[in-house]
Design a protein that fits this description.
Elements: H1 5-13, E1 28-30, E2 39-40, E3 43-48, H2 67-73, E4 80-83, H3 90-98, E5 104-108, H4 112-124, E6 129-132, E7 143-149, H5 161-167, H6 170-190, E8 191-201, H7 210-219, E9 223-225, E10 235-236, E11 240-241, E12 244-245, E13 254-256, H8 258-261, E14 266-273
Parallel strand pairs: 4-5, 4-7, 5-6, 7-8
Antiparallel strand pairs: 1-3, 2-3, 8-14, 9-14, 10-13, 11-12, 13-14
Helix pairs in contact: 2-3, 6-7
């Protein structure tokens, strides 16, 4: 399927081109035991899968870029953590691994079908996780750390480009951006004072990334962007797009493009309340 012309133009404006959709990204697994495999540079306990080395059948395999928002969250076993839009469960699994399955994790998703996949992962790997099936905007309570890996247009999912191209439109981007703003506002309201909120997507669209974070910074004066301490090749967040100008602190965000690390594309922002 051919890339939409408008998407191609937007990519070029970001310094990208359609060739990114021809690559196939690396996959990885997590292991606390040393393995005879290449380590993922941004996390010592992650290893790139190699054809030369077989992995166990029940190994959890994922794109190593998914580690970045979880590492940025810096979860600890004493934290009360919300994975707000969790299905199918990759980042819930990673957060559980990072906390040795000792943190209190609530994993939610609005889709019944996707929650079935999430529950499957929770049960298969014995994750100490409470699973919810509701709109992220209806979650109650308070959390010390929240990951909002928001539903998005998926422009960075280079392994699934046909599905992406079929559904992509600028109108859809605008609609998704409105939903993301509502989600991030509610996430921030659920966040405890001094808590950490990670906002991430797998898209390149500034309307779904910097614009959403800029909206939060404008709405809540106690929201502050901070640096992300993950050693991965990335571009800085945008401080302007078309005629819009964003808060200068948006440069602290990570834009991870497929050519940077041979992964899918990703956007990550780290905020604190206080």
């Amino acid at each position: 399927m051919q890339i939409p012309e408008k998407l191609k133009a937007r990519l070029e404006k970001l310094g990208l081109n359609e060739l990114i959709y021809e690559q196939r990204t690396k996959k990885c697994i997590l292991s606390r035991a040393d393995m005879e495999m290449e380590k993922v540079p941004w996390y010592d306990n992650a290893y790139f899968i190699s054809e030369a080395v077989s992995v166990k059948k029940d190994s959890f395999i994922f794109d190593p870029v998914s580690l970045v928002p979880c590492l940025a969250l810096d979860p600890k076993k004493e934290d009360k953590i919300l994975d707000m839009c969790a299905a199918p469960g990759t980042k819930t699994f990673i957060i559980s691994f990072l906390t040795r399955n000792e943190a209190h994790i609530t994993a939610n998703d609005i889709s019944r079908l996707r929650v079935k996949r999430l529950k499957g992962i929770v049960n298969k790997y014995g994750l100490s996780t409470e699973v919810l099936n509701m709109s992220g905007r209806k979650i109650a309570g308070s959390f010390s750390k929240i990951l909002l890996d928001a539903p998005c247009s998926g422009e960075g999912m280079v392994n699934k480009n046909e599905k992406l191209f079929e559904h992509w439109s600028e109108k859809r981007i605008r609609l998704i951006s409105k939903k993301q703003k509502k989600l991030i506002a509610h996430a921030f309201e659920l966040l405890e004072w001094g808590g950490t909120l990670i906002y991430s997507t797998c898209t390149f669209s500034p309307e779904e990334n910097e614009e959403v974070v800029d909206f939060l910074l404008s709405k809540y004066k106690d929201a502050k962007l901070i640096d992300i301490d993950v050693n991965i090749v990335h571009a800085k967040g945008l401080v302007e797009w078309d005629v819009k100008k964003y808060d200068s602190s948006l440069a602290k965000c990570f834009r991870i493009y497929p050519q940077h690390n041979n992964t899918g594309g990703f956007f990550v922002a780290k905020m604190v309340k206080g």
